[in-house]
Amino acid sequence: MSDIHLDHDQLVAYVDGELPAERAAAVEKALMHDSDAWETVRLLRLSANAATRAFAPVLEEAIPQRLIAAAGIGSARALPRNRARLPLALAASLAALAIGLAGGYALRGESGGYVAASLPTEDPLKARFEAALESLLDKGSEGASVAYESGAAGQGHVVLGHAFVTGAGRPCQEFHRAETRGTNHAEADGIACRAADQSWSVMILPAGQ
Amino acid sequence: MDQAFSHQLVALLPRLRRFARGLTHGSEEGDDLVQAACERALARRDQFEPGTRLDSWMYRIVQNIWLDSRRRQKKEAISLDPADLAQHAAPAAHAAEDGLYLAQVREAIATLPEEQRTVLMLVTVEGVTYRDAAGILELPLGTVMSRLSRARVALGHALENRAARKSEAAIIRIRR
Q1: Domain that holds residue B69
Q2: Which of A12, A27, A59 to mutate to test the interface with B (most CBs of B within 10 A)?
Q3: Which among A91, A128, A147, B62 has the fewest CB atoms less than 10 Å away?
């Protein structure tokens, strides 16, 4: 088994974990006696790491509106067009916000972390959603959107709706979230309101119709 | 149904943009490519078989449109727009030096032969398996592997040479 031929194709498949276990073990064994092949393995790892990192920032960019429109989602379609059409439930939820955020939580930007008031954040997709929402709230205006994903956990996107001010003078913003986890697709509306310390209080509204 | 399809499509946009960015080496061209792919996907959505992978289907559409546009482009002169290169400057969120290095990596990837670059983007950056990549690109598995290994070795050498030149430059500066 030691006469295995260590050509570049074998080595790249070895580095990428694409070889069956026994074949990978044979390659590993043969590598012990082949310093040229080791050098190639090093280059193959270096290039994989560099290429992955070089394009990772693209995932963090805000998605241009024209692409979301091209995918068949207009912000106008995903969101109520004017405030008069907002469901009555929103008014009730605003009251809940004022009382103390039952079912909501707070986003705090300064520390870079998110302080959960009542919900755990070990859910990676939820953490990505919160990060996406927070950056959108800080930078975006109505119609702006951002997508997020967390590997195998799923992916989604958020679109900002109307900005408004509560009776108590707090600036708030509606948003719409579409999220896919495995085969489950869920849509929800929510609102976020800014506190005096610049943190956001977020409430996801219960499914409407 | 239609909306659900669109939402799944939107959820794929970050990855499709990343793939297209690597193919076109320009953020505007990349987004143009993704936009065309989304439009084609919506127009042909009845051809998508439910239960199969939408991401693979979309990668293939992006790749096909890109190949078509390349064939057309080859008849015209290819020019590099400096404004476009400027968009590859380090993202603000990254430390300047790190961002510079990553910009160099993207430059090096851009100089790879087209077919090698496509496989590199799909497998190494997008994390598609060799088998799925062979399906998406409609190539034999062996061809995927050989293009990938050539791309990765070439990129590895290019980055090593860059690093070597940089340390030489540092040594010269110290000697002065």
Answers
A1: 1-77
A2: A12
A3: A91
